[in-house]
Design a protein that fits this description.
alpha+beta, Ubiquitin-like (UB roll), Alpha-Beta Plaits, five-stranded mixed sheet, 13 strands, binds iron/sulfur cluster, binds FE2/S2 (inorganic) cluster
Length: 271
């Protein structure tokens, strides 16, 4: 294998030719923040548009995005220089300057990558004021809400929809400030080839793509004592639910799931 030798934060590392600085940093357990980057190694697909610039690092006197820069022989990378940290901070401040400030009532509150990165960088004010982009929220489907006011154009959803799911419902349209990830002729998602698989939601780092929340309707039904409420779960939930509660991936949790649903008030559980 053709290897490249470099140093990151004065630590030596060798990585296969074609690796990025981010790959090399991972090998050294050095954390570089990322936002647009998404490595789906199980299927060998990487979202590598390098659009957010949150992963800036210093190489010599310059700054480069770690996720989109190939590691080179003899390279000397520093991840925590003043310039690199300031560049990341500025980029996130700019993203926030065109982002709704409604974290408290956002579906992604507490589970938002943009929110965590802003907090980790110590951003406590939005210094930049200017034009705000506006996109109509698409609530046309029964399962997905598309709120592109919160989109940071990371294009992860596009990679997921086009390269993994091979559906092709989403694509970047327009240029500059008007750029957005849209649908064919800007039609509502319900009128596209979207299969409502929801995979785009699972990779969206912000609240731009979220699930329709039917939990209040379920509680309403459960609170009607005279009503017999039944639940039917998809087979995969028996396994996936365990992970949500910290069990090892692949743990079958059928019994726990049924017990929990019955204690919530469901009369019958079908799976
Ligand atoms: S729900 Fe699935 S098919 Fe629809 S836009 Fe998202 S990834 Fe594509
Ligand atoms: S909708 Fe979400 S995943 Fe898609 S580009 Fe915008 S922020 Fe990224
Ligand atoms: S994570 Fe590297 S440019 Fe977005």
């Amino acid at each position: 294998m053709n290897l490249v030798n470099l140093t990151i934060n004065n630590k030596s590392v060798s990585v296969p030719k074609g690796s990025t600085i981010l790959d090399a940093a991972k090998k050294l357990n050095i954390k570089i923040p990322t936002l647009c980057h998404l490595n789906m190694s199980e299927v060998n697909i990487v979202n590598q548009c390098s659009s957010c610039r949150v992963c800036m690092v210093s190489v010599g006197k310059g700054l480069v995005p770690a996720c989109g820069t190939l590691a080179k022989e003899g390279m000397n990378v520093q991840t925590n220089t003043k310039d690199a940290i300031n560049a990341r901070k500025r980029v996130v401040e700019l993203l926030l300057s065109d982002h709704p400030q409604d974290c408290l009532i956002c579906d992604k509150n507490g589970n938002c990558e943009l929110q965590s990165i802003a907090a980790n960088l110590g951003i406590r004010e939005i210094r930049f004021k200017g034009e705000q982009s506006f996109a109509k929220t698409d609530t046309s489907t029964k399962s997905i809400i598309k709120n592109y006011d919160k989109c940071i154009l990371c294009r992860r959803c596009e990679t997921m929809c086009n390269d993994i799911q091979t559906v092709g419902a989403l694509s970047g349209v327009n240029r500059g400030f008007n750029t957005k990830v849209g649908t064919f002729f800007n039609t509502n998602l319900c009128d596209t080839e979207c299969t409502f698989c929801g995979q785009c939601i699972s990779v969206c780092p912000t609240g731009a793509l979220t699930e329709v929340n039917n939990i209040p309707l379920v509680w309403d039904a459960l609170h009607q004592n005279e009503k017999t409420v039944v639940v039917q779960v998809a087979p995969s939930v028996r396994v996936a639910i365990g992970e949500e509660f910290g069990l090892e991936a692949g743990t079958i949790s059928t019994g726990k799931m049924v017990a929990a649903l019955k204690s919530l008030g469901f009369k019958y559980v079908f799976d």
